[in-house]
Amino acid sequence: MKQLPSTKKEFLFGPKNYRMLLLAIGVIALGFVLMSGGGSDDPNVFNPAIFNFQRIRLAPTLVLVGFGLAMYSILLNGDKK
């Protein structure tokens, strides 16, 4: 019976990549949390809070930055040992 050479399983990315990816997921989640809310319970009443700076500028910017960080974490040359 032939013995197969033992192959050590390795992760595709290094720990630095995974930390950066977790940071990116956190930034994206924060952006979506900041984007939520601002609605009105009564459909006949208009709530102008949906057009504030947080929901129109800050939250979408955070989501885009998070996606950029995610792409960077994939392309980052991690510290594989």
What does this molecule look like?
The chain is an all-alpha fold and 81 residues long. The protein has a domain at 15-39 and 46-75. It is 54% helix and 0% strand. The protein is built from two helices and no strands. Helix 1 (15-35) packs antiparallel against helix 2. It is elongated. The chain starts with 14 loop residues before the first helix and ends in a 6-residue tail after the last helix. The mean pLDDT is 87.
Describe the secondary structure blueprint for this structure.
Elements: H1 15-35, H2 53-75
Helix pairs in contact: 1-2
Number of helices: 2
Strand content: under 5%
Q: Categorize the overall geometry.
A: elongated
| Secondary-structure-derived class | mainly alpha
Order of helices and strands: HH
Q: Helix proportion of residues, in percent?
A: 40-55%
How would you classify the quaternary structure? single chain
Rg computed from alpha carbons, rounded to a whole number of angstroms: 21 Å
Q: Whole-Å distance between the termini?
A: 33 Å
Work out the number of β strands. Answer: 0
Biggest sheet details: none
> Which stretches of 5+ consecutive residues score pLDDT under 50?
none
If you average the pLDDT, what whole number results? 87
Summarize the structure.
It is built from 2 helices and no strands.
Features of the shown structure:
81 residues, mainly alpha
